[in-house]
């Protein structure tokens, strides 16, 4: 058995066991909401579906689907606020929708609740596999051929940089992480008020994405248990790298993502680069208009330029909940969103890179925003997405993960400890939480 198959089979074993334990220990869990594929035949006559989603393009996408599918009608509810909590509450109450938009990182949490339908037997699902970027398919599949959603969108990372400031100091766009650090030192020497990037308590998810780029496995399913290792192997290389940038005062440690302080720094040039997803492009244009024409986009710096590796920060899948009475039609809707050109164009328009391979060749991907120097920035993001590692997995308690990692970063920035030491404490908290949910988990090195 190859390593990839072994890992995903172990994912199923661990989560299935955890779900069983959770169901036995809580009257709210629904053991009947099984994840077995079973039969998935289309219904006779017109079908009504409920869909809980979020994001600007969602209503337009639903409207177009309804127009082109007279035998299926989708009614959408916007769950932009606390979507995970709303869907979790609905699962426990037995009022879950047919289809829900769930971030890739939250899929295992819903699997733990036994709340998702395996749609691998539904018509058309198998055909979708070859139409989407490989890593997105890996995010929605588990062992034994189980499929628990269809990719909706992605957030590949790239390097946003102030080309005017790099030019001012004669600095080249960094190609490696060593280059990136060297540029930070030269910037700091030239202008003490300038920061290479920001690294604050809100950057936990981004740190995981950068571990992903380096081939780290902070969450490893094997031998019927889940190992949480935030500081070992290739994760350690990433952690120690950012520790150096903190120690050398090259990064802004009080600037939080998506705040007025960040927008101001984007605008006035005190923040010289951003390690951001594709969706950040729209945020920048709306909130830092004074910097129009000064920012550009380049590939992420690499650890090994002979093996280009991308990273992802965000993105969601459309999942069919186990309680749906019309899984075939629900799966048809989810598959259509993943591959239909109209749906993909709507996603591109708001800064999402589509999961569909064909959509990466749409004319909309050739747009050259004036804000970014009239360059085709979407090509950079699509290239990043094509090289994202397919074997990265998420744990079934991401809220605890991000909270614990954020606390670790906060403690580190106070200056009396290290990021590595604090992340080791964080992983113990994460493991304790997993065990409380019935998952056989352990910290790295044990």
UniProtKB/TrEMBL annotation:
Keyword annotations for this protein?
Signal
Note whether Acyltransferase occurs among the keywords.
no
Q: Which InterPro entries match?
A: Bact_solute-bd_prot1, SBP
Q: Does the keyword Signal apply?
A: yes
The organism's superkingdom is given as: Bacteria
Q: Residue span of the signal peptide, if any?
A: 1-22
Q: Which CDD domains match?
A: PBP2_TMBP_like (cd13585)
Q: PANTHER family attached here?
A: ARABINOSE-BINDING PROTEIN-RELATED, BLR3389 PROTEIN
**By what name is this protein known?**
Carbohydrate ABC transporter substrate-binding protein (CUT1 family)
Specify the species.
Kribbella jejuensis
């Amino acid at each position: 058995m190859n390593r990839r198959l072994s890992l995903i089979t172990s994912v199923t074993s661990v989560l299935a066991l955890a779900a069983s334990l959770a169901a036995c220990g809580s009257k709210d869990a629904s053991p009947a909401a099984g994840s077995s594929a079973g039969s998935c035949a289309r219904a006779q006559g017109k079908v009504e579906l409920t869909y809980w989603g979020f994001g600007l393009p969602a209503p337009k996408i639903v409207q177009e689907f309804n127009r082109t599918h007279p035998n299926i009608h989708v009614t959408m509810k916007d769950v932009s606020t606390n979507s995970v909590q709303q869907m979790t509450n609905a699962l426990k109450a037995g009022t879950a929708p047919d289809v829900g938009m769930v971030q890739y990182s939250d899929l295992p949490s819903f699997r733990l609740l036994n709340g998702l339908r395996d749609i691998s037997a539904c018509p058309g699902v198998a055909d979708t596999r070859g139409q989407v970027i490989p890593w997105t398919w890996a995010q929605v599949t588990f062992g034994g051929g189980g499929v628990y959603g269809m990719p909706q969108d992605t957030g590949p990372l790239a390097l946003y940089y102030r080309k005017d400031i790099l030019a001012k100091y004669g600095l080249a766009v960094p190609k490696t992480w060593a280059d990136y650090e060297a540029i930070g030192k030269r910037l700091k020497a030239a202008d003490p008020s300038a920061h290479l990037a920001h690294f604050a308590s809100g950057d936990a998810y981004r740190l995981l994405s950068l571990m992903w780029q380096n081939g780290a496995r902070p969450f490893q399913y094997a031998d019927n248990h889940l190992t949480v290792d935030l500081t070992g192997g290739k994760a350690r290389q990433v952690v120690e790298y950012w520790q150096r940038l903190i120690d050398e005062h090259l990064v802004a440690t009080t600037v939080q993502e998506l705040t007025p302080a960040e927008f101001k720094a984007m605008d006035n040039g005190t923040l010289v680069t951003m390690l951001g997803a594709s969706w950040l492009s729209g945020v920048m244009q709306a909130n830092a208009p004074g910097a129009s024409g000064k920012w550009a986009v380049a590939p992420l710096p690499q650890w090994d330029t002979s093996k280009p590796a991308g990273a992802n920060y965000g993105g969601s899948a459309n999942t069919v909940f186990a309680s749906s009475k019309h899984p075939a039609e629900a799966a048809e809707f989810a598959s259509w969103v993943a591959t239909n050109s109209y749906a993909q164009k709507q996603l591109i328009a708001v800064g999402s890179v589509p999961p569909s391979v064909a959509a990466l060749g749409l004319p909309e991907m050739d747009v050259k925003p004036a804000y970014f120097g009239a360059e085709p920035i979407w090509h950079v993001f699509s290239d990043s997405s094509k090289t994202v590692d397919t074997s990265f997995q998420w744990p079934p308690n991401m809220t605890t993960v991000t909270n614990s990692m954020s606390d670790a970063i906060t403690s580190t920035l106070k200056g009396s400890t290290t990021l590595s030491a604090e992340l080791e404490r964080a992983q113990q908290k994460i493991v304790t939480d997993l065990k409380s949910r019935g998952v056989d988990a352990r910290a790295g090195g044990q």
